Amino acid sequence: MELKEYPDREMLALSLADKLASQLAQQLRSGGDASLCVPGGTTPTPVFETLSGTDIEWERVTVFLGDERWVDGDHKRSNSRLLRRHLLKDRAAGARYIDLFTGDAQPDDATADLGQALTPHLPITVALLGMGNDMHTASLFPGADGLAQALAKDSPMLMPIRAEGAEEPRITLTRSVLSNAMHTHVLIMGPEKREALERAQKLDPIEAPIRAFLDNATVHWAE
Ligand SMILES: O=C(O)[C@H](O)[C@@H](O)[C@H](O)[C@H](O)COP(=O)(O)O
What we know:
Elements: E1 2-6, H1 9-29, E2 34-38, H2 45-51, E3 61-65, E4 67-69, H3 79-86, E5 96-98, H4 111-118, E6 126-129, H5 147-150, E7 158-161, E8 170-173, H6 175-178, E9 183-189, H7 191-200, E10 217-222
Parallel strand pairs: 1-10, 2-3, 2-6, 3-5, 6-9, 9-10
Antiparallel strand pairs: 4-8, 7-8
Helix pairs in contact: 1-2
The chain binds 6-phosphogluconic acid (6PG).
Keywords: Hydrolase
Function: Hydrolysis of 6-phosphogluconolactone to 6-phosphogluconate.
Enzyme class: hydrolase
């Protein structure tokens, strides 16, 4: 794991957006299309705002979330809504977007079709992960139903998740997909998350799911 500390959140957002764009561009230059997996939550908004204006060939980039809350796309807790407002606009409006919320009654009904839609875009070129203070990432929450299966090296690509720390059922990409990304970045801000990261480094993924992705990751932190 590499830890990058920034003097402030603005510097972090500018520098990280630049890094993500250059890794996508590098993949595009090599001739293939690229995929970008991003987190929901509140932290990534400034990174999305900068990234959306970067000059790469977005038409050849497929964007999807690492997890989605099972709510309509216009619900205030929808991660897709956040992406449409802050990332999939400006130059990045040209990107292809795979929406993990299918409108099925339950996330369980959506995993097979979504797995088919995502497969052509794997391995993920660039994965950006967030982390909660409880050390969850994507919707891999400590104590969630099925967490051991989601963290297995041969996990199904996507799983429905129900967990105490989550307000609604969710769908999440799992270890087998997220840990195979060509480039992995973790974005955290503030002292509590820094402390949680340090705790996670000493724990097993079943207690600290972010741990499963740290070995090959660059962690970006600002106060
Ligand atoms: O849908 C979600 O909630 C996320 O994808 C989740 O994994 C998020 O990255 C962390 O919970 C951090 O969230 P914050 O950035 O809001 O602290």
